[in-house]
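are you around this afternoon, could really use another pair of eyes. what follows is a protein written twice so to speak, once as letters and once as structure tokens for the fold. i want to understand how the tokens follow from the sequence so walk me through it. anything you notice is useful, everything is just below.
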Amino acid sequence: MTDNQETPDAEDTTPSGSATLPLQPPCERLSCHKSSVCSRSYFVVVMVFFHVYIINVIALLFYVHYSSGQEDTSQSRDAPSSNHQRPESRRPPSKTEFMRDISLTRIEGIRVGHVQRVSLVPGKVHEMRTLSLKPLLFEIPGFLSADECRVVMQLAQLKGLMESQLMVQDGQEELAKELNLSPEEIFNLLDINQDGQLQLHEILTHSRVRDGIWLTPENLREIYAGLKADKDGNGLLSLEEFRLLSNDAFQRFLLQRGVKRSQLVRNSRHTWLYQGKGAHRVLQDIKARVTRLTRLPPTLVDLSEPLQVVRYEEGGHYHAHHDSGPVYPETACTHTRLAANTSTPFETSCRYITVLFYLNSVEGGGETAFPVADNRTYDEVSLIQNDVDLLDTRRNCDKSNLRVKPTKGTAVFWYNYLSDGQGWVGEQDEYALHGGCVVTHGTKWVANKWINIDPDYQRQARYQQLVSQQPEEEDDEGLTLNPDIQSPDIHQDL
């Protein structure tokens, strides 16, 4: 507020107002006039200074806000490439620093059916729908264009596809010898409910994990009869009966009888397509779109697996499984095995996020099934009950809690791990169990983009150091994964 703005008010309240007062001595009139003018002038001056003060405070707050934001952005943008003004102390971040500086953004599902608007490409807005909360699962129609789907399939065919799973292999006894496990110890590992008997579903789970063969309860009873393993014929194996079997007795029996492709855990063909520098523009665009979708640091996406393209012919399937395994002290993530510097006998895939693209619409079958999505509880033992195997996508896909129909260009993605509550990877999400239903008509084409992150943040940081192409002195800068360089928040609730 200025003096010019206050002047009209002053003029309206003095001469005209004083004309109606009774006549007074000149001296009294003069003193009264001076007092009135002084008080009004004092009020005007105070108000001017007050408004100027408020404006300055607001301007200062805006300046601090925007200048600090620009400084942070410029620092994060310049950090990977600048060779100047770097800190003297160059050490890997400690646990506290690492957890403070790095945060793995997780998209909120809100509720099943909730829709968010997602900006992934210029001039277009996609709608992302929440399909389940356990696991945290989303669907984005039109993620890929028809031309992009065609290019990916053509590139895969040009490179050539291979069998996704080989037939039964020998050498299972070597692992048992390395672990030095006795029959009693193996029996106790298989006896999930610890009742002293091995039920059919306990043996089935073990055989599938070890041999890659999908056995039904009927198959297992045939094997029992062929090996004469179940002496009393009650369908259960006692410890005494189990001791009579060698480590690969089931495997040898199956080799003698022959294994059909339909008996494999997975019946498909696949290949891998590189997405780095020099790759086809469509493949690079897909990777950039995934980075924006997940809002993860680009470094993590760049260092993850290439794009896997899979083709299922009629009769093709993939029984229910987890893309990632739980990580125990005895295991190491496959992608960070070199950085782990351990001699652990077990490896597991550490895939924090799965992004699945449907490259064509399937004529019949081929849905992606999530048997226990949004179940109130998860119980591994209850997955096989009364000869109904929820893991069997050839027989029981219709009994899954959720099935996603393959539609050309649609993408679905989910988190295979929970959050640890501090911005990093937590425990495996067991509800992320999923499989590919049998294709009854036509052919099914899909592509998978996995983002690999080790739940052990120190191993992940060490891995990034080892694979980094930057000079040694710049490795630590590449490890910071400053969240400021992540894609901006491009999700908007509808």
